[in-house]
Amino acid sequence: MHFRLTVLAILCGALACAQEFRALISGQVTDSSGATIPGATIKATNLNTNISVTASSGTDGRYVLAQVPAGPYTVTCEATGFKKLTRSGISLAVGDRATIDKI
What we know:
Elements: H1 2-18, E1 22-28, E2 41-46, E3 52-56, E4 62-69, E5 71-78, E6 85-92, E7 97-99
Parallel strand pairs: 1-7
Antiparallel strand pairs: 1-4, 2-3, 2-5, 5-6
């Protein structure tokens, strides 16, 4: 009986891991002097589907775009008083955890 429960637990764990089908993008928004920029809007747009995921940077300039579907992306950053910046050529695979600090 104990062996069956162990096998069942291992199989359930493997299935739970196999269900991950998204990626994550995170980073910190700073200006040219290195000062953090709170309240910036960061948007990742999938080039295949044109679907976007958006987040705002916190008081420390950090942001997280969670649950991002795999694919090719362009990431933009906008903040009041700063010009809009764009990073293209970002390719995310399933389970990737990309860090993009200087957008």
